[in-house]
Amino acid sequence: MNFIDLIMSHAPALLVVIPLLGAFLTPLISKINDKIRNIFVISILGITAVFVLLVAQQVLDTGTITYVFGSSLQTQNNTVIRILFEIDALSIFMALVSIILAFVASIYSWGFLENETGQDKYYTLLLLMTAGMLGMVLTGDLFNFFVFIEITSIASAALIAFWTNRVKAVEAGFKYIFISTIGALFILFALALLYGQYDALNIAQLADRITFTYLDKIALIIFISALAMKGGIVPMHMWVPDAYGRAPASASLVLVAATQASLYGVFRVLFTLYGNVIHLPNISFGWILVILGLITMLVGVIMAMIQTDFKRLIAYGAVAELGYIFLGVGTGLTIIANPDIGISSAPFAVEAMKGSIFHIINDALDVGLLFMIAGAVYYATKETSLNSLGGLARNMKYTTIFFIIGLLAISGIPPMNGFASKLLIYESTYQLNPIISIIAILSSIMLLAVFVKIFQSVFLGPKLKKFDDVKEVPKSMLIAMGIVASIIIFFGLFPDLIVSNLVEPAVNALIHPENYLQGLTGGL
Predict the structure, then answer these.
(1) Whole-angstrom Cα distance, residue 445 to residue 304?
(2) pLDDT of residue 524
(3) What is the torsional sign of CA 261, 263, 264, 268?
(4) Which residues sit opposite 86 in a β-bridge?
(5) What SS3 string covers 168-180?
(6) For 393-421, what is each residue's pLDDT tens digit?
């Protein structure tokens, strides 16, 4: 085996090892030179991104990859005792979302934080958070999922409270770690309920042994509640506006990816862990997700309409977008679990799932771009209040163009990426119930109105005298925004290419997890 083959054979582990090693080296390199440190962090995340792409190509070409930490898969009393990474099309799809946002955040941070202290700690936390997110979506073991979610939560809380001289930032970080701790404890409790019954932590073995006892139902409710809380789903979204609003814009960008990773946990639990029993008669989890999605959508939009703080408004817009993801998954699960609801079920279930999975990456890109724009406005003006801003389009032309792209994308206006995924959700939910589709469309229209209001307040209107000397943000920030804007436009112009090559394999892996489960047990 040559060196390249050796490296590729361990590529799944390197996806976590590289950013983890980088996190430990960053404080040391920071002692040498700040510029060298920044280049090092960007390089670490760039190398990780390359490995994610290589693993993605391998997964999409050959199927699910099982990576065993240790010499080989070992069992004891017919129970897998090795730690495994199990990478299917859904796992690698989520890994792509995480690494894209983390890589872009590292570029954006160079300019955004150039005058800030504590950058060595910031970049260390950024790399730790990336390692945690990737571990969450790659692991095939429930306990290790808990470990990685804890790593992500601790790093996230510290990033939210990065500006320790600001009371509201520290308060937001404390609120986030408090909520995250409660969520993690509930996840651990649900895990213990399953382990106590089935003596296994491996997802595949649990899926095979679950009989949907009373304790199994309790564990399912706890899992979904805790992960939905970490994902920012209403009514458990109370931490989102403060966390997103008070964190540095670059950290808010990565927090979006962490939120999506938690939603991945919801999907894994519903379709993979409980996939063999969730289709039982009278199971209404699909409808619960649909209702939660609608409530999340409406609450997010309505709360966004009354905000005067730029970042808090975007945060509530992000909450609304999460509603579309839950709505699509709930519709798909409802149709799959209830084949007798009176429609030609299979096609619309798949369409709903495609829309939901596609909207995960679209939401991450769109919301991420808007947070970077809010950060750019703050960098240039030191203002976040919409009432104190105006006329910035004259001095910040590139930022204004990027905002228009983000505005159209998050509102689902063609030809941006948000239109393609929302259209799939509209079509499938209409078949389930036309009223649901109408509510979803109206929510997008309201969201469009909200961001048009921002455009008028921040970039148009009379030019304020205090902003006469405002200049465009540093090139690193423009490059980061340009990368995300380019991806948004590309996804919008060629949605079929993305759906057929990335989204469909991810949906098939979610709906038909047989290969994923087989790899986790080694054929036991």
Answers:
(1) 13
(2) 47
(3) positive
(4) 66
(5) HHHHHHHHHHHHH
(6) 888 999 999 999 999 999 989 889 989 99
How high is the pLDDT of residue 1?
60
Is residue 385 within 8 A of residue 308, CB to CB? The reply is yes
Give CA–CA dist 524/520, Å, rounded: 9
Q: How far apart, in Å, are the Cα atoms of 425 and each of 354, 419, 441?
A: 8, 10, 10
Query: What is the Cα–Cα distance from 313 to 306, expressed in whole angstroms?
Result: 8
Nearest of 378, 376, 359, 330 to residue 480 by alpha carbon: 376
Nearest 5°: the CA angle 393, 396, 399 is 95
- Judge contact between 443 and 301, C-beta under 8 A: yes
Amino acid residing at 358? F
Cβ-count burial of 6 within 10 angstroms (0-12 exposed, 13-18 middle, 19+ buried)? exposed
* Pairwise CA distance, residues 273 & 260, whole Å: 19
Is the whole-model pTM more than 0.90?
Answer: yes
Burial 173-182 (b: 16+ CB within 10 A, else e): bebbbebbee
d(CA 160, CA 180): 13
Residue-wise pLDDT for 417-474, tens only, equals 989 999 999 988 888 888 999 999 999 999 999 999 889 888 987 777 787 788 899 9
The alpha carbon of 147 is separated from its chain's Cα centroid by a whole number of angstroms, namely 18
Q: Strands (DSSP E) along 168-288, which ranges?
A: none
